[in-house]
Amino acid sequence: MGLQCLYRGSASELDTAITRDDFIDDLEKRFREAFWQDPDEREVRSWRKSIPTVVRLLVDAGLGDVQVLLELKAPITDVRMDMVLVGTFPETDLRSVVVVENKQWSRIHPDAEMVRLSSDGTPQLHPANQVWGYLQVLRGYVPMLRDEKLCGIVNLHNAPAHLVHAIRPTVQGLGELVQRWVAVYGAEHHRKEFSDVLRRRLSGKHAAQQAEMLLEAPVKPAEGLMAHVAQCVRERTVFPLLDEQREAYDHVRNLVATSKQRTRKEIVVIVGGPGTGKSVIAVELLGTLARQKVNVVHATGSRSFTRTLWKYAGLPGNQRGLFTYFNSFSDATPNDIDVIIADEAHRIRETSRNRKNERDLREPPPQIDELIHAARVPVFLLDEHQVVRRGEVGSLELIRNKAEQLGCGIREINLRHQFRCAGSPEYVDWVERLLMLRPSHGRPVWQPLENFTLYVARTPLAMENYLKALMTENYTARIAAGFCWPWSEPNADGTLRDDVSIGDWRRPWNSQASDYLGDIPPSSLWATDPAGFGQIGCIYSAQGFEYDYAGVIIGPDLVWRNGWHTERRHNVDRDQYQAPDFSMVVRNTYRVLATRGMRGAVLHAYDPATNQLLMDLGIPILEE
Question: Measured at the alpha carbon of residue 110, what is the angle toward residues 108 and 116, in degrees to the nearest 5?
């Protein structure tokens, strides 16, 4: 699968095209066809105002043959780069690629490694760090570019030179590699500097062929978090952080550096749907801060996720405290920990204790209070549509109310970009519309995507055989189901009972054991150990994890009868069927299960009418 962009043409062709009245209308139409939505007003304004400032420099510099790619979609994600210039490095045959980020800002001020757009504005991502993330993801996931000439430019064409000078990477002291490979140019005399660097980096020789080869270049598959968690925690930064991901990372690091001088605690809340990189941010922060000797811990409400992190981080027993649970801070001294990173904060419970201490008749404090009090910098990462059991109370509203009650500041950062599901937010959006977790104007008919595969299976056997074949090609795959079948103890010989039964097809749930039963992995490793295939996972063994292909069995607790109906009697999980909002919990469950796949998914509904609905929506049918 190659790279995609909205427009490709030479600088001279684009110089002519932008004079046409219908050029912007054409870009908007292409955008809607590619991304299922209207472009943001600011994007359209940038197309009108910013693109010409770069194109004019190229043409005036005699670089009219250089190819310009507009809105190039970065590999493995739906992040888009404003402009990518492709040509040949002067006096060589090497491909040269220049990534340009356009900003229409006229005012800008430095703030540690971030910037503000006014003297009292909110700190936000430094555009040089933004561009550096794009260079990292191109080098990391497009093998063709690893040895090519690659650099980045921030085009602040409305900003006066003296303000731009103050935020240049060398002046502001950004990372050494950012200083080396990313330049920032403003208005006035900076335009000549900009033009000069374009001449030094680009020529139009064979530019069309270079651009075509780049767009057709194979993209390296994204690897899951667990594949690199040990390096990330113990050695170095591994994952490129893009846009709001990097903004969140930089903001927390700035807070840590100044926390002891602050008179008011600030809570950071990072909100994002499945696959937006919440756990990647969490682990990158943990690793960076731990290597800087900051007292930091990563906490979750998930036994499976935390124990898997223990295993894949490869930490000795005395260092496993880096990964702990939300209920570990009942007796913590206030501000005793520099940073608590509360990952999957939607799983926060009402309290950390199931009952009052027999010698203490007071009500136990809310778990959210314990987390906030224990850390100088409390960081919460959450997805409000992943509340899947009774007693889970984590939400943005809860944290906002608590911040106001405790007199804390709060910074909310929303992650917009998709890194799972092959970087296809269209799929996640479709799942949410299908399950009526967001408004849907009409039937959510499936529109095939170029980089994500979706099927509906007539039978679970067809699903299993398809996924099994993919595993022989070194992909990872799992089947998970709604909690609609009893979960038996293992047989006396250690084998698992075939509890999940659909017609003649019978398979066991994943093991409940805390250790291996022969080759069968414990529940905490079901999603990551290859031997987990063949057992059926549930929401508790799948939530927080990812694999290449997700098989999802929609059980009889969710059926389509001219609308969704949820059936408590068919759900056997006490924490789910006793939930006050059972319908929301069940639909959230299937949203989570359906968005575990990085490359594709297969759906099968136990109820025939519900399975027919999926077929009627245009999902390709997977036969036996």
Answer: 50
- What does the alpha-carbon distance between residue 113 and residue 331 come to, in Å, rounded to a whole number? 35
No. of H helices and E strands in the chain? 22, 24
Torsion of the alpha carbons at 116, 118, 122 and 126, rounded to the nearest 10:
-10
Domain stops at, among 414, 448, 476: 414
Query: Same domain, yes or no, for 312 and 233?
Result: yes
Instruction: Report the SS3 class of residue 164.
Output: helix
Whether the predicted pLDDT of 102 surpasses 80: yes
The mean of the pLDDT values for the chain is 90
Residues 145 and 171 reside in one and the same domain:
yes
Domain contains 2: no
Banded model confidence at residue 325, pLDDT cuts 50, 70, 90: very high
For residue 142, what are the CA distances in angstroms to 18, 29, 100, 237, 245? 30, 28, 18, 19, 21
**H/E element holding 324?**
strand 323-325
Q: 84 to each of 26, 102, 172, 601, how far by Cα in Å?
A: 19, 11, 25, 32
399 and 452 part of one domain = no
Q: Name the nearest CA neighbour of 489 among 516, 515, 508.
A: 508
Chain centre to alpha carbon of residue 274: 7
State the pTM of this model.
Answer: 0.83
Based on the fold, state whether residues 212 and 290 are members of the same structural domain: no
What pLDDT, in 10s, does the model give residues 130-140?
Answer: 999 999 999 98
pLDDT at position 614? 97
pLDDT of residue 319: 65
Q: Is residue 350 part of a domain?
A: yes
575-590 pLDDT, tens digit each: 898 888 999 999 999 9
Please count the structural domains in the chain: 3
Structure confidence at residue 402 (pLDDT): 95
Condensed to tens digits (0 to 9), the pLDDT of residues 464-499 reads 999 999 999 999 999 999 999 999 988 888 889 999
Given a contact cutoff of 8 angstroms between Cβ atoms, the answer to whether 275 and 593 are in contact is no
Measured distance CA(406)–CA(458) in Å, rounded: 54
Range of the domain at 295: 225-414
Is the model more confident about 385 or about 501?
A: 501
Question: Which amino acid belongs to residue 229?
Answer: V
- The position carrying tokens 């990812």 is 546
pLDDT tier for residue 392 given thresholds of 50, 70 and 90: confident
384 and 519 part of one domain: no
Q: Which of 216, 238, 271 is a domain's end point?
A: 216
Q: Residue 599's closest CA among 62, 231, 220?
A: 220
Query: What single DSSP character describes residue 262?
Result: -
Q: Hey, how many other C-beta atoms are within 10 angstroms of the C-beta on 333? A: 9
Residue 25: is its pLDDT beyond 90?
yes
- Mark whether 512 and 368 lie in a shared domain: no
Residues 425 and 285 in one domain: no
Same domain? 114 vs 80: yes
